[in-house]
Amino acid sequence: MNVDIRTHIEHWPYIRPFHITGHTFDGSAALVVSADDGSYRGVGEAAGVYYRNETMAGMAAQIAAVADAAAYAGRHDLPSLLGPGGARNALDCALWDLEAKRSGRPVWKLAGLRHVRPLLTTYTIGADDPAVMAVRAGEYASARALKLKLLGDGGDAERVRAVRQVRPEVWLGVDANQGFTPDSYHALLPVLVDARIALIEQPFAIGREQDLDGLDSPIPLAADESVQDRHDIEKMRGRVEVINIKLDKCGGLTEALAMISLIRAAGMRPMVGNMMGSSLSTAPGFVLGQLCDFVDLDGPTFLARDREPAVVYQDGYISCSEQVWGGVRN
After folding, report:
1. 100-129 burial, b for 16+ CB within 10 Å, e for fewer?
2. Which pLDDT value is given to residue 88?
């Protein structure tokens, strides 16, 4: 059946700027894709992958270039049209949504799940002065899990200590976003152990995965930027314990679901994250999160405003109704 594929670009401002290693963000641009067969309309959203220099205009151009072929394609045909990345993610999710409406079955059922449940999610605190990060940690009063963005700049020890002091009870992880070196990692490690850090995400730069060899970290390590899609999983075997799957990286929910079994088969544990965005970006990740051991789906909490209906955050958990995305109504 012929499907009309269309795109438009949106911008969702943040409440405040958000800092990570090498970047500051003041909002989330979004590419929204619709797939309309004349009776039903599916939608998907992508924020793209900033460190791969994806832009909204560039992703829209990618989809425009394959729109004629995509009009007759199914989700499983998309890898022959588009590589992993935000463009394929938005289109893949739009086709999932369309399939749900056509079939009268929500996406979570189409994905083989028996049910969905609220998920414990981390709440992310951007890198900042230690006192500011401590205040942010206090503001997330309902959070049961926090993730701290660190910079590898010599101030990380105080950042970690400041947050742990005000939130002694929470699960606490850190994310370097490629900002550590082996030397800075080893210098910081005693502080991380003392602060009961539960997970260290992407300590080293893409292309420096060999620095993980023989690291013998007492804290579990997670790969994010080092793993884009299924083809990067095997190289992390024995190097990390956790793989962070993001739909914008891997190219959509179809690829993400396939990665789950491959990650577990390689002896690692799956995590779901997001590249920010509105609830429309987060909802497919919520479906994937039902199969993951770690969940980091707090992107909409950074927005000055969100879509309606939206995902719900309560008592440290995220819930997402079918009305947000992936339900059976148009």
Report:
1. bbeeeebbbbebeeeebeebebbbbbbbbe
2. 98
pLDDT for the residue numbered 15: 96
Cβ contacts of residue 261 below 8 Å, gap of 6+?
none
pTM beyond 0.90: the answer is yes
Burial class (CB in 10 A: 0-12, 13-18, 19+), 130: middle
Q: What is the pLDDT of residue 1?
A: 65
Instruction: State the pairing for strand pair 171-175/199-201.
Output: parallel
User: Under CATH, which number does the domain 4-104 receive?
Assistant: 3.30.390.10
Into which CATH architecture does domain 119-319 fall? Alpha-Beta Barrel (3.20)
Concerning whether 249 is annotated as a catalytic residue, the answer is no
Contact between 108 and 326 under an 8 Å Cβ cutoff? The reply is yes
Dmax over CA atoms of the chain, in Å, equals: 60
Strand positions, DSSP E, 134-256: 145-149, 171-175, 199-201, 221-223, 242-245
List the catalytic residue out of 101, 109, 147, 246: 246
CB 78 within 8 A of CB 88: yes
Q: Measured between alpha carbons, how far is 202 from 176 in angstroms, rounded to an integer? A: 6
Residue 144: exposed, middle, or buried by beta-carbon count in 10 A (0-12, 13-18, 19+)?
A: middle
Segments making up each domain of the chain, as ranges: 4-104, 119-319
Q: Which entry of 101, 109, 147, 149 is annotated as an active-site residue?
A: 149
Estimate the crossing angle of helix 86-103 against helix 253-265, to 10 degrees.
100
As a whole-number percent, the residues of the chain with pLDDT over 70 amount to 99
Q: For position 149, what pLDDT does the model report?
A: 97
Catalytic annotation on 235?
no
Higher pLDDT, 31 or 1: 31
Element at 19 (helix H, strand E): strand 4-20
